[in-house]
Amino acid sequence: MRPFVEISGVSLAYPGAGEGATLALDGISLSIERGAFVAVVGPSGCGKSTLLKLVSGLHLPSRGGVIVGDREVAGPIKIVGMAFQNPIMLPWRTTLDNVLLPLEIVEPYAGRFRQNRRAYAEKALALLAAVGLEGFADRYPWQLSGGMQQRASLCRALIHAPDLLLLDEPFGALDAFTREELWTVLHDLWDAQRFTVILVTHDLTEAVFLADTVHICSKRPGRIIESRSVELPHPRDKFAPEFIAMVRDLHVGISHVRAA
Fold first, then answer.
1. pLDDT profile of the chain (260 residues), mean per 10
2. What gap in Å lies between CA 25 and CA 8, rounded to an integer?
3. Do the beta carbons of residue 166 and residue 80 sit within 8 Å?
4. Which of 15, 30, 46, 219 is the most exposed place for a label (fewest CB within 10 A)?
5. Is the peptide bond before 91 cis (omega within 30 degrees of 0)?
6. First CA to last CA across the chain, in angstroms?
7. Do residues 182 and 209 lie in contact, with contact meaning Cβ atoms separated by under 8 Å?
8. What is the rounded distance in angstroms from the CA atom of residue 158 to the CA atom of residue 61?
């Protein structure tokens, strides 16, 4: 069976003046099965976020190709949900209306949004309850903490039931307690729905807590230099010796990248 996401020899160069183009990614190949949870780690500027843009179709590769769900990515695809470090909630919309936004603009939902709004709202309220935001649907972003906004952002990314969830350091700006709480929230959502996840993160503990495969990216131009399976049962105990050993090994791998 063909992988759900297949990245084949992908390189991307950003055009530039002076010294010319900047090669962000160089010859990356990855295969990701449907329902998998993978993490990509590496030093700043190595092209991790660029990789997500290629998978989502926001950028097209200079060389190579990306296939998602048996179709070559030639532009933005509809089966993707995305969440970023900054939740980017619209301040004039309530939490509920922010979550519903993708259904207003993504087909086939947009064409029948008005007649189905009640059903869509019920789905959004169920998602908000699942992430601990029951009772906050009518609040505006400025009335929510950073962690609450990020919970709402996850709901917005999942409201249209995407097959693929792309996460670009979604918890990086949060305090340690909130960050670890949201790891569990995300894990529980994934465990219940089994969408495919690609997580970009600097946090190696986060990567081991959530992902079943961790890909280590080199310095720019980014290349996948190592892939490690995390063969630990869910839910994971970050204080278990096996967990600590896995994080330590990843730290060694990243240290070698930085020293190269």
1. 93 73 91 97 88 95 95 93 91 97 89 93 96 96 95 95 95 89 94 96 95 93 92 93 94 71
2. 12
3. yes
4. 15
5. no
6. 37
7. no
8. 26
